[in-house]
Amino acid sequence: MHWEEARPTEECAIPDAVVDAVFSISCRELPVDHAYALSQAVQQALPWFAEDAGAGLHLIQIAGSGNGWMRPSDPQALLPLSRRTKLILRIPVQRAADARALLHQTLDVGGQALRVDQIAFRPLVRITTLFSRHVVIASGDDEAGFLQAADDQLRALGIRPKKMLCGLKTPIRIPAGTLQTCSLMLAELTLEESLQLQQQGLGPARKLGCGLFIAHKDINDLRRKPE
C-alpha cells in the first residue's frame, strides 16, 4: 500500500477527448477468461479499433463468488450474463460515429453469440478515486514491487498518486502466453490527473481490457473497520 496525506483540489484543464461507448447486448453466457476472444471479435467488426492507440476495451464483468457459490477457476468455464450487462469501448470522441458500425452485429466470442443492440455515449467521470481491474506491469510477484513500478509509470505521465492499493491478481490468456494482471486503486488524484489517466490508461494491452480506469468509492472506505 502507498499512502500520503491529502492535497488541495486543483482546477481541471483536460478537454473531453475520450468517451465510453456503451452497448446494450444480448448474450447468454461467456467464458470466464474472454479477453482475447472478445478483443478479436471487436477488432474484426471494427477494423480501426486495433490501430487506434486511444481505443480500449472494458472486459465484460461476470458474476463473482458469493452466497455459497464459488466462481469456477477454469478459464474456459461458461458463466451467465445479466440482461443489464453492457459492452463498453473507450474511444476518442472522433470515433463515436465509427463505433456505431458495431450496432446490430452478432459477434462470436469464444464460440458464444453476442448481439449488439443499442449504443449510448458516456463521458469520463470527474472523480478523484479510480480503479482498474487489470493492470499489466512487469514487477515480479510482490505487492511492493508492483506499486513501485506503477508509481514510476504514473510519475512518467506527470501523475503523482497520493494513495495506491493493489488487489486481485488475474491471468489473461493469449496465444503467445499469459499476461499477469493486478487490480489497482488510486485515490486523491487531482481532477486533471484523473481525466488524464482515464484517457491515457496505464501499462500495455489496452485492447485486452488492461490499464483502463473507472470510478470507484473512496479508498478511505476500505480502511474503515465495520462498526
Provide a concise account of the structure shown.
This protein has helices at residues 35-45, 47-51, 96-99, 143-156, 191-200, 220-223, and strands spanning 2-3, 18-26, 29-31, 56-58, 78-80, 86-92, 106-109, 112-123, 130-135, 163-174, 177-187, 214-215.
Could you please describe the fold and organization of this structure?
This protein is an alpha+beta fold and 227 residues long. The chain has 2 domains: 2-14 and 125-223, 2-Layer Sandwich (Alpha-Beta Plaits); 18-123, Alpha-Beta Plaits, CATH 3.30.70.1890. Helices cover 21% and strands 33% of the residues. The chain is built from 6 helices and 12 strands. It has helices spanning 35-45, 47-51, 96-99, 143-156, 191-200, 220-223, and strands at residues 2-3, 18-26, 29-31, 56-58, 78-80, 86-92, 106-109, 112-123, 130-135, 163-174, 177-187, 214-215. The strands form 3 sheets. Strands 1-10-11-9-12 form a 5-stranded antiparallel sheet. The protein has a 5-stranded antiparallel sheet with strand order 4-6-2-8-7, covered by helices on one side. It is globular.
